[in-house]
Each structure stands twice: as C-alpha cells, then as structure tokens.
Amino acid sequence: MCAEPVLVEIQAEPGPDESLSALPENVHAGRNAGRWYSLSGRPRAAFRNHRPIVSLTVSTRNRVGRKWKILNSTPGRSSAAAEEAAASIRISVLKRSTLYTDIMMMRRALLTALPWILCTVGCSRGAEDPSSVLILVNDDTMPEPGTGRKGASLYVGEYYAAKRGIPKSNILKLHIKLCCNDDLHDAGNSEISWARFEEDIRQPVMKFLARKGLRDEIHYIVPVYGVPFRMHGTKWKYQGQSVDSFLSSMNAMEDVFGLANPYRARAGQGQKRFRDWTNPDHWKMYIVARLDGPSAMIAAGLVDKALAAEPSLKKSDGIGYFDYRHLSCCAGQPYFDADRTMIDAYTLAKENGYEAVLNDQTHTNGEMIHSAPRTLWAWGWYSGAKSWEDYQFVPGAVGAQLTSYSASSVRTFPAGAWVPLWLRAGITATWGATGEPQATGYAMGDRLLYHFWNGFNFGESAYLSTPYLQHMMVFVGDPLYSPRIFQK
C-alpha cells in the first residue's frame, strides 16, 4: 500500500557502483539526518519498502566511491497531479566531475523516484501499490500478430506491467504445455485438468510467493492470455470450474466446490478496501482478474482502455442498459431475486445521474435488448445459448449478461458466450460463468456496479459481489481499473 509521502533531501557522491537499493528501514521523518549510506542492488528496489521520496538534492563531488547522505526530511502532502509531484524533484549538481557522471546521477535519481511519484499521485486517489500485483504468464506460448518475437502470453504480461508500473520481478513465468498446434483458441489450451492445474499453476504460484516472501504482500493476481481459465476432471458434479476462482482462495487449504466468499458485501453495506481488509476466516485471500480475450492484442488493450477512462470518464459519456424479465414470484426464489438485480441496477444508475434504459420484457414480447448504442453500463438476462452483436461500447464500459454460458469461452465465440463477444466489441471490463453457476452463484451486477460507483476498483467490486470462491466466476479486465470520478 502507498504510504503518505515525505520530502527528503539526499546528498550523493558518484562512484563505480552503478546500481541502487533501498535505504535502511528507519530512514524517514528526519531521524537520520547527517548519516551516510552506501548503495547497491537494482534501481527498481530503491525505496520500495519505505516512504516515497519526492524531493532530491544531488551533489556530485568525485569519482571515488559513492554514498548517499540524508540531509533533511520533512512531512509532505500528497500531490494532486503527476506534474506537481515531478516538479517537486530538485536536482542540483553542486560540483561537476564529468558530464557523463552528472547525467547518469540525475537519470538514476529520477528513475529511483519515479515509481514513488506515481504512487504519491495514486495515493491521493486511493490507487494501489503496483508491487502488490502478481502477473501470471504462460511462457510456453508462441508469438501472435502484434507481439513481435515474444510469446503472446509474455507480451501481454510485460505490456501490463509496463503500463501499470508493476515490477518485472512480479511476473511469474509458468510453463503450461500446449496442444493442438499451440493454438490458444483451441479448447485444449483454454482448459486444464485438475491435476495439471495443481502441478502447473497453483503449486508454482504458492511456491513463488513463499520463496519471495510475498504471500501477504500480494493482493492482486492477474493471469493473462495464454493461461487456461477453466478446469475439467474435477471431483464435483458440475465441471468447468474457474481457474481464477480457485487461485483466489489457494491459502484456504481446503478444496470444496462453492467456498463462501468472506469479502462479499451487499450493496449499501460498508466494506474496507481490500488492502486494508483482514479475512475473518484467517487465511490470505487474493483478488484474481485476468487480461484475456479473443487475441493477445484485445487482452493487452484492456489496460489501455482502463487507463484512458480513469482520468476522463464522465457520467454523460454513455448509457446504461438493463434487461428485466419482470418475474412475478417470489422473494427468496433464486430466479426472482436475480431478476430484481436488473431493476435495482437500473434504479441505482438513475439515482447516480446516468442516462439509463430499462427493457421490461413483459412489454417487448420477451425480447431482450437488440440495440444498445453508446453502452457504458450493462446488466441483463436471460439469453440462454444465444448471443448477438448489438452492443456498442464506449471507453470505460463495464457490464455483463447473466447466463450459464457467458464465459464458457473467453477466446472463441460459442453460442451464449457473451464475454468474448463483448471483449471484441470493446468493453473495458466484464465477467461471466465458466460453467453452470446456478443463479445463486453468479456475481450480480447491481452489487458490482454499486461498489464500483462508490470508489472500489474493478477487482474489488467483482469480489464484493461474488457469492462463492472455488466456483465458476471469471472476471476479465484490469483489476486496478478505478475512474477518478468515483473517488471520494
């Protein structure tokens, strides 16, 4: 989690060591003024575990050994914009040695401070620390159009890391063998057996987190294009379980179908941000949402859509569409309760000032929405094993359809699979069922949109609305997606 920023002045001497590392843990708030510290290690690690440094004074003196000296530090305030944070960096070369040394010193200082500048800006808007995200790639995938010589999965993972400032050391390269001419669109590469899930995905992830000491530091796990998303060969009646749903609860140390989600909250019920939340069941949980879709370019483009919408999204940018069956009976029955979420989502949209359309199917001879221009929000049902291409999404759009087939694939287009269809149509974040979820197991759109509109990011909103882990839900989109307009 980002800490409140502290303005720190540092004096440095250049030397042969060209790398940097974190200062001692107690270096903050002026308590260590006047002390000298040697530097070693990689620049990305610098200050990672300490308060952000947004003001630097660099003095180059000679070329014999380099040390940093804490001159002074005082409490600072979060910047309102990246430009303000960047402007607060002060680099003054008091005595020049060589031009190269000066340039490299200034470059290292800027690169060292930049991740914390971004964090400083993000902290003021409730953004997440990029180092709390773990990216999963399948390093056995082949290149695809647009990925150059890189494997498609690695390309998407590295692209996401670069866009969000996630350390490359937080990319875990899994080796998940492919079949079927290495075609990621083949069902054999979208699905994985329970035994191979354990051997090729879950155990490597758990061992990586333990080895790196990151089990409790990671809050978000992002599998990307090329990592299977559904399972077969499990011991339960229903097949097609979500890989992501089982990863979220891998520390629960029990494999049951339909583990109650301890983070879930009703619309209107207060809940903490995930980074501040403690699981009452006493095991570490993760928010798992993936960057996936019909192609590597569509998967990678999800973060671009999120980043473009975050600073600029407005209520007038689009329309909410809600498909309501208007079932007449009865409260407490799963289909009736699911149907109520459609009108509840519509009501919430209107209360929040959005233009919204409610399609009451009792007035349209049972027909669902077939024309949806400028879609910003969407939640509806029930198409069964059918789908169509009548939704036109604006940047930043979030929505889903409640069906048993909605995410039977996320890379191809079987009947009723709304997730890949809407990803191709340009939605920014969506979700669906990898197998039969029953109405009681679906992540309901009224809850998800309520939390999203109240400042939770997409990943948090998804899991606040999910009844069960180790079940059927898959969420596709940048979990950190959080428009500025919703930040309180």
Q: How would you briefly describe this protein structure?
A:
The protein has about 500 residues and is an alpha/beta fold. The chain has helices at about 80-85, 100-125, 150-165, 185-190, 195-210, 245-250, 295-310, 335-350, 420-425, 445-455, 460-465; strands at about 5-10, 35-40, 65-75, 135-140, 170-175, 190-195, 220-225, 230, 260, 285-290, 320-325, 355-360, 370-380, 390-400, 430-435, 470, 475. Mean pLDDT is about 80; it is low at about 1-125.
Observed structural traits:
alpha/beta; 488 residues; 4-stranded parallel β-sheet; disordered N terminus; 3 domains; globular
Note down, in words, how this protein is organized.
The protein has a 4-stranded parallel β-sheet with strand order 5-4-7-10, sandwiched between helices. A 4-stranded parallel β-sheet has the order 12-11-13-14, sandwiched between helices. With 488 residues, it is α/β, with parallel strands linked by helices. The chain contains 11 helices and 17 strands. Helix 8 (334-351) packs parallel to helix 10. The protein folds into 3 domains: 6-123, no CATH class; 130-288, no CATH class; 311-476.
Topology:
Elements lengths: L5 E7 L23 E3 L28 E9 L6 H6 L11 H25 L9 E6 L13 H13 L6 E4 L12 H4 E3 H19 L7 E4 L6 E3 L10 H6 L10 E2 L26 E2 L7 H14 L9 E6 L9 H18 L3 E6 L11 E9 L10 E11 L16 H7 L5 E4 L11 H9 L4 H7 L3 E2 L3 E4 L12
Parallel strand pairs: 4-5, 4-7, 6-8, 7-10, 11-12, 11-13, 13-14
Antiparallel strand pairs: 1-3, 2-3, 9-16, 15-17
Helix pairs in contact: 3-7, 8-10, 10-11
Roughly what is the average pLDDT, rounded to an integer?
80
- Gross morphology: globular
Q: What is the number of independent domains? A: 3
Question: In percent, how helical is the residue content?
Answer: 25-40%
The multimeric state of the shown protein is single chain
**Can you write the helix and strand succession as a string?**
EEEHHEHEHEHEEHEEHEHEEEHEHHEE
- Uncertain residue segments: 1-125
Class computed from helices, strands and strand pairing: alpha/beta
Number of DSSP strands?
17
Q: Strand order within the widest sheet?
A: 5-4-7-10
**Count of DSSP H/I helices:** 11
Distance between the termini: 18 Å
Strand content: 15-25%
Report the radius of gyration as a whole number of Å. Answer: 24 Å
Tell me about the biggest sheet? 4 strands, parallel
